[in-house]
């Protein structure tokens, strides 16, 4: 009975961690797509697959009026995630803050405006999803500062992640890697991990 209980707890841990999203682009674009972004309506027009290059990244030259790289369609269920992060490189900017990261649900979106570092090198960007500071909200009613409730609602129904691939009003070059939106380890998750470790130790003692 004890071993069965440990196994169930361990499976609960695995199920909880499965809700995290990670895109490392090691061997392909993992379903990411190129899209043209309309800032006034927050609508996307899909163009084709994002450009994958070795050693494992999304790498784009200016391919649209407002180019964005966009994730595969998602199924939501990511409420409570602590943050979203990625590595990003740009070679030039307009020195003006544009929508840089967009998280979209079917009827609303949240986004961050930023001027990325433009030196051709990778830089790490991380944004809290438990603090609405810096986030903005868009829906059919217009644009405003986002609340924590807005963030939670979008994560619950999240369908797309979009990252700006057009930092300059003219020819530019961007790279994207290591996109991660991580779920919070719940108490049951931590219990499950401890249980799995205990089960492994017990098996080693019997061996």
What does this structure look like?
With 207 residues, the protein is of the alpha+beta class. It folds into two domains: 42 residues; 163 residues, Sandwich (Jelly Rolls). The protein is 22% helix and 38% strand. It is built from three helices and 14 strands. The strands form two sheets. Strands 3-2-6-13-8-9-11-12 form an eight-stranded antiparallel sheet, with helices on one face. β2 and β3 form a beta hairpin. α1 crosses α3. The longest helix is centred in the last third of the chain and has 20 residues. It is globular, with a radius of gyration of 20 Å. The two termini are 20 Å apart.
Q: Nutshell version of this structure?
A:
The chain has 207 residues and is an alpha+beta fold.
């Amino acid at each position: 009975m004890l071993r069965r209980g440990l196994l169930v707890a361990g499976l609960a841990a695995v199920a909880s961690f499965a809700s995290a999203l990670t895109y490392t682009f090691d061997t392909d674009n993992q379903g990411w797509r190129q899209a043209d972004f309309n800032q006034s309506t927050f609508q996307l027009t899909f163009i084709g697959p994002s450009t994958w290059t070795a050693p494992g990244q999304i790498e784009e030259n200016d391919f649209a009026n407002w180019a964005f790289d966009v994730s595969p369609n998602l199924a939501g269920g990511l409420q409570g995630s602590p943050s979203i992060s990625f590595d990003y490189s740009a070679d030039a900017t307009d020195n003006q803050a544009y929508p840089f990261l967009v998280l979209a649900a079917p009827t609303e979106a949240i986004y961050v405006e930023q001027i990325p570092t433009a030196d051709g090198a990778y830089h790490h960007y991380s944004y809290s999803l438990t603090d609405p500071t810096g986030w903005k909200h868009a829906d059919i009613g217009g644009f405003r500062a986002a609340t924590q409730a807005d963030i939670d609602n979008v994560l619950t129904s999240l369908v797309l992640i979009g990252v700006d691939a057009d930092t300059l009003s003219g020819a530019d070059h961007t790279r994207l890697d290591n996109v991660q939106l991580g779920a919070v380890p719940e108490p049951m998750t931590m219990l499950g991990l401890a249980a799995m470790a205990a089960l492994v130790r017990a098996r080693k003692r019997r061996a």
